[in-house]
Amino acid sequence: MTTMKNQPGPGPSSPDYLQMSLAAAMTLNLKEGLFFRNARLYCLNLLLTYPGGCMGNCSYCGLQKSRDGAFAEKSFIRVSWPTYDLETIIEKTLENRHKLHRICLSMITHPRALEDTLALIRRFREDVGLPISVLMNPTSMTAADVAALRQAGAQMAAVALDLAGEDLFDRHRGAGARGPHRFAHYWTMLAETAAVFGRNKAGCHLICGLGEREEELVQRIQAVRDLGARTHLFSFYPEKGSRLAQDLPCPAGQYRRVQLARFLIDNDLSHFPNMAFDARGRITDFGLPPEDLARWIDSGRPFMTSGCPGGGLETACNRPFGDGPPSDIRSYPFPLEAGDVARVREQLGNG
Q1: Using 50, 70 and 90 to split pLDDT, how confident is the model at 340?
Q2: What domains sit in the chain, N to C, each tagged with a CATH number?
């Protein structure tokens, strides 16, 4: 087994090396640790890596280029992402294949990311055989590149739009953040991804709590659904070392309401035009009869992690505690128990 850190000079680089989430390393028995409440990870989350790092400068991201330190040493989603050689990753994935239902390859903003992602898709498809998702880097991609991902063997693909509207996107990811990304291109590429991969095979990452109103975010979730895609929702939680490190996490009530709205929209149970909002943009009516809404809340399903499915699971990419600590779970990586539902009900009425 080879595990490496970026050093001065060439350093480890994809496709021969990849970073993986701490949860993935624990699942493959490469790192020791226990999951809170015996949670399990069902998706192997892998991140392309290069000595120069990511060219993006997103204000909330631990991988932003303006953050001090070597790329491989930067945290991402609040945890370390250790680097391993590809052969070790494939060997350990095969040993633990019974635990996994999907592989997710996350691109970063780098000139080689597409070429290396295509090579990695082919390698994992041939040697492992699990369904593969790709979290794309639209900035350096064209419509033809989206088709190439599918031709190489990707089964699903997602675009990390993250922000609900163009102004917020520009402030946090584009010119306002001294970053290369542009909202219009991201949206065009999401539409292309939905067209190429088909209905429910394209995903859109959106983050709740970055200055948008609930109404604005829910409207965007509906627009994503109208493309035939689904939203993978995250609750903003400040990342150490990012420019938003001192900001407050998304209020729990705000996130719970948007979670519920997303679930209803993505499962075609309600629609944005049927919902109502107060003067501050907070959701006051979800567009369902009270008894139907209560049934869905009691099921707990709207408050579980939203992501790519696999192995009969509604979400295989369940990212345990990826957007909140175990003491303040935002996206539940397992079915909710009665006490969890009671807490969620209380939070829904807050803020």
Answers
A1: very high
A2: 12-348 (3.20.20.70)
